C-alpha cells in the first residue's frame, strides 16, 4: 500500500554503503532554493511610532507610516498584499529591488520582523486510488474502522456530530456538488462559504486570479480531506465524516497543479479568522524544521486568539529526525501524525496440486494473471541469503509459463526480478526472509511479496517434486488482512522535533489507507498526514460541541487531546519500546476519552530542551474536574530514544529512525495524591536523559508520565536531547552524497571545479555552487570575497594558499571576531531559518545556486575579476556575533570574465 515510501526507505538503507547516493547530473542547473527570491513578508508594529494624535485617524494606516519611513531610506519596494488584522498580524507581502535591504528594513522603527516567502507544493498523497464502486477491493473492509480506533463511533452514537461548529479548510478547493458533501454551495448547504485565492490556473509562479467560489474538480485533494471531516453518512460506501454536522468553509489556496507561497497562506489564514471559524485545518506544508516561517507564525497567533488550528505533520518520515513541516511547525498549532488503518485489503492466490490454504499476497488488486501456473523456485534452500542476486544458471528452464519464487535478501528486488526476467520470468513472488509483509518496489515487473511461511512451504514442495500450481483469481480473491502496521504510526509521518526543540507532531490520527470523497461524485482511498489533520479537526469539533465552544476549551484542547492520547508502540514485537514521541506526539487521539475526561492536565508537553539549555525540573498541574473525589497515582512510561544522527558522522539517520530502549530517569513528586472535585495539585517531574548512549547520535529521549485515577488514565509527554545543538555540524563537508567532498562548484557540463576557473556567462558557461546541510541553520549567507582574503584564523587562511582543495573550517572555541566583521565584496544569498537537506536526490538532496548572470543578490553587475564564495552557516542556538558559532567554507577561485 505504501510501496512508495517503503521502497525509498529500503533503497536509502541499502545503497550508501556501496556508492554515493547521487551524481552531479542529479543537480538541477537552475537554482532550487526553497524561498521565492526578492519576496518577503514584513510585520509591522501596530502602535509603535505613530504619533498619538494620528493614532486614531482612520485615514492613516500603520502601513503608510512605515512605508513612508522606508522610502526615506532609499529602499525600493512594491507591496503585493496588505495584512491588517489587529492583534494578530499587521504587515505586508513585498517585493524588493535589493534583497540586501532586508537588514535596513529590519532597522526601521515600526518594523517587527521580515521573513522570506516560502513555497509549499500542492499536497500529494502517499497513496491514491479512485475506487470503482462499493465492491472495489481497495476499500478498507470496515469503512468505519478509523472511527472505532478513536472512539468517534461512540460519540456519533451519543448524537455528537459537530453541530454548531464552524470549520474552515485551507486546501485545493472542494467539489461541494458531491452528494456526500452537501450537493451545493452557500447558506443552507454543508459548505456555506469560503474563497478561492488563486484560481485553477495558478501554479505558484504566476499571478493568482481570485474569486469567491472555491470549487475544485481538478486537484481533488481538498475533496478527500473534506470528506474525512465532513462527509454525510448514508452513502453506498458506509463512510461518514468525523464531524459531519459541522458547518464548513473552503479556502482554496492551490490551483490544479504547482505550489503556493506563504503570502497566500497568510491571507487565507487571516480570512478564516475574520470569518469566525472555530477550527482551521490545513493538509499542506513543506519541511523546513523551524517554527519561524510567516505562515507558521500566523497560524500560531490565531491559536493565541482562541482558534484551533490543525495541520498535517508532513510525509517525510523517510528523511529522519529534525525534518518537520511548516506551517505545522507553528508553536501553538496541533501538528498531526498519521496512524495506519487497522485493516488492509489484500489479495489471495489459490494453491493447486496439493491441499493448502490460499496464500495472501501484498497487492490491493489481483496480479493480472488469468491462467493457472506451476511454480519454480530459484533455490531449493529456504535459508539462502542472496537468492537470484546473480544471473541464474544456464540450466534454468524457460520461466515464462511459471510463477517464480525467490527469497528476499542481499540485493534489491529489482535486481532479483531482472535476473529472473532474463530467463523469461513474467510473474514472481518474493517471500520475506523475516516477519516483514508490506508493499515493495518491483519496478515494472509483475511481482509482489508473500510471507516467509508461505514462501518456505512453496519451496519445500518444489524441492520435493510436488507439482504445485497457483491461480490468481481476478474476482473474489480480496481478503481483509489485519494491517501488520495497523494502529502503528505510519512510516511516512515526519519526525520532529523542530530545530528550536518544539514538540512536533503533537498527536496522531488515522491517515493510512483512508476512504473518502473525491470530485465528480467519486470516492477513493488515500494515505498521508493530509488525511490525519482533518480527522483531528473533526475530533476537536466533537469536543467543542460536547464541552462547550469557548476560548478556554480552545486553548486547552491540544493538552486535552495529548493527555488522553493512546500511546503507540514502535512495532508489534513484544519488548520493543514505545514509538519515539518525535513521531507519535501524545499518541493516537481518543476523542471519546477526551470528551469525557474528568481530569485536566496542563501543560501536557514537558520540554527539557538540549543539554546546554536543559530544564530538567518540569512542573505540571492535575485538576479534578469531576464530581467526586479522585485518588491519583503517577508513574513513568518511557518511549524509545531516537538516535537521530548516524554514529560517528554528521549525517542524520533516515527513517525509520533507530531507537534505543535506554530510558530516561524521571522522579515524580508527589506521585500519589487525592483531589476533591475542583481541586488541583502541582506535580514536579525531574527528568534526566538515559546514560551510556553514544552522544554523536544526538539521542532524543522521550516518554510519558501516566496519571491514573483508577478509572481513567491520562499522561503528560516529555522530550529532551542528550548533547547540545551548538555542537551539531551544519554544513555537510563529506563525500557521502556525491562521492566528492562538499561543498563544490561545478559547471553546466557537470565538471567539478578544481583550482581557479574563469566563466564568461555566455551561453552555458556559468558556475553552480552546491552545498548540503546536514542540519538546519538560523542564518546562512553566501558572499563574494577577495580571492586572497586575509580572514581571521578561524576561517583558516590555509585555504588561501591551497588552491587545489576547497577548505571547510569548523572552528574550535575562539573569543574574537563577529559574523559581520569579515570583509566581503557583496552578498550573493542570505537565508534565515534554513532547514536541512534530505538524502533524496529527486527531492531535497542538495542546495544548488546557479550563478547564471554575474550579479550580486541586489542585481548589480559584479565587475570582472577574481573572487571566492564564502559560505557561512550559524549553528543552532548559536550567537551570530560569535565567530566560533559559525561554520565557514571558502570556495575555489572563480574568475568573472563576462
Ligand atoms: C514595482 O513595480 C513597478 C511597476 O510595476 C516596477 O517597474 C518595479 O520594477 C517594481 N519593483 C519591484 C521592487 O518589484
Ligand atoms: C471531473 O469532471 C470534469 C468534467 O467532466 C473533468 O474535467 C475533471 O477532470 C474531472 N475530475 C476528476 C478529478 O476526475
Ligand atoms: C485468504 O487467505 C488467508 C490465508 O490462507 C485465509 O485466512 C483467508 O480466509 C483467505 N480469504 C479469503 C477471502 O478467501
Ligand atoms: C488473459 O490475459 C491476457 C493478457 O492479459 C489476455 O490477452 C486474455 O484475453 C486473457 N484471457 C482471458 C480468458 O481473460
Ligand atoms: C530443486 O528441486 C527440484 C525438484 O527436486 C529439482 O528438479 C531441481 O534440480 C532442484 N534444484 C537445484 C538447484 O538443486
Ligand atoms: C530550547 O533552547 C533554545 C536555546 O535557548 C531556545 O531558543 C528554544 O526556544 C528552546 N526550545 C523550547 C521549546 O523552549
Ligand atoms: C582567467 O582570466 C584571467 C584574465 O583574463 C587570466 O589572467 C587567468 O589566467 C584566467 N584563469 C584561468 C584559470 O584560465
Ligand atoms: C566545464 O569544465 C570542463 C573542465 O574544465 C570543461 O572541459 C568544459 O568545457 C566546461 N563547460 C563549460 C560549458 O564551460
Ligand atoms: C549591490 O550590492 C553591491 C555589493 O554589496 C554594492 O556594491 C552595490 O552598491 C549594491 N547596489 C545597489 C543598487 O544597492
TrEMBL record:
One of its GO terms (cellular component) is membrane. It comes from the Eukaryota. Belongs to the peptidase S8 family. Residues 1-19 form the signal peptide. Keywords: Cell wall, Hydrolase, Protease, Secreted, Serine protease, Signal. Residues 384-456 form the PA domain. The lineage of its organism: Eukaryota, Fungi, Dikarya, Basidiomycota, Agaricomycotina. It comes from Agaricus bisporus var. burnettii (strain JB137-S8 / ATCC MYA-4627 / FGSC 10392) (White button mushroom). Gene3D superfamilies: 3.50.30.30, Immunoglobulins, Peptidase S8/S53 domain. The keyword Secreted applies. The keyword ATP-binding does not apply. Residues 609-715 form the C5a peptidase/Subtilisin-like protease SBT2-like Fn3-like domain. This is Subtilisin-like protease. GO terms for biological process: proteolysis. The active site is at 171 (charge relay system), 221 (charge relay system), 530 (charge relay system).
